[in-house]
Amino acid sequence: xxxNTDITRRSLMVLAAAAALTPAxxxxxxxxPNGQITFICAFPAGSGADVLVRFFxxxxxxxxxxxxxVENKPGAAGNIAAQYTARVKPDGYTIYVHSGTSTAANMSLxxxxxxxVVKELQTTSFINKQAFMFVVAYDSPIKDMKDLxxxxxxxxxxxxxxxxATSGKVLGEVYKQVAGVEPVEVSFKDxxxxxxxxxSGAIDYGVHDPVFALSxxxxxxxxxxxxxxPVRLKSIPDIPTAKEQGYDIDQLGWWGSFVPKATPQPIxxxxxxLFNEILEQPDTVAFLGKFGGDVYIGTPDEGxxxxxxxxxxxxxxxxxxxxxxx
Length: 326
Known about the structure:
Layout: H1 5-21, H2 26-31, E1 37-41, H3 48-64, E2 68-72, H4 79-87, E3 94-99, H5 100-109, H6 117-120, E4 121-130, E5 133-137, H7 145-155, E6 160-163, H8 166-179, E7 184-187, H9 195-200, E8 205-208, H10 210-218, E9 222-227, E10 253-260, H11 265-279, H12 282-290, E11 294-295, H13 300-321
Parallel strand pairs: 1-2, 1-3, 6-7, 6-8
Antiparallel strand pairs: 3-10, 4-10, 4-11, 5-8, 5-9
Helix pairs in contact: 3-11, 5-13, 8-13
């Protein structure tokens, strides 16, 4: 049968017109993900944060069917990585995997934070709930928080403690206020950098992330005295909280994934679905549990609301701890 060229021509014109009226990026959104994805890590390679980010990068590659690479952008307590993420193309192919707690806290810890995290970042998923920990050398005579407080009151300003992340810094300051002690904070670029000083006794204790603390405890280099969580976590039921030892501390942190605020909602929803698929896998639950984290699943809207709430909470924490802004 002969082809009616007029009908064919009209059909092509209709298709072209429909394409012109289609919102920009709609086809890309439908196909997402369809290309290499980059996960941004705010700490150096080999750090506790890096271990977690690379685990999820590998998992995300499997559930998405795409290559996922990790770029480490350490510095400025995560501000470098957060600002980088906020400025990239909002297409879902750059995802910041980091502590929502630290991301929010930087709004109060810096006089001039480079971005407004609530206005310029979009939370795409939760990852876990976790708590920073008070640790001492494994052979230390200090067995619990009361022992630690007694020692610090005896040493006064001659005592010192190590921190390497925003959450540890604030937890350490809040403990000092609650306990009435005055040790000197020694800040390190990464928790592992403080290990030798803590083992030698040059530094009395540390307030560190659970990945580092638990790995060192398992190697019998460190002893964990308490977490900053208000209640014991399901993944580490044998580790007590500072609160149950008599210190009114309530600092439960959380991790999540973030993209630029302008990222289209369908892509945000797809990223959320992929992360939630990962979080439901038994080996993910086991991995997070090994490092003191409880799986945390929610929607992007719930994540964004918690980010805003955490920003407000940390204004109070920073004021309470009387932490000078950087």
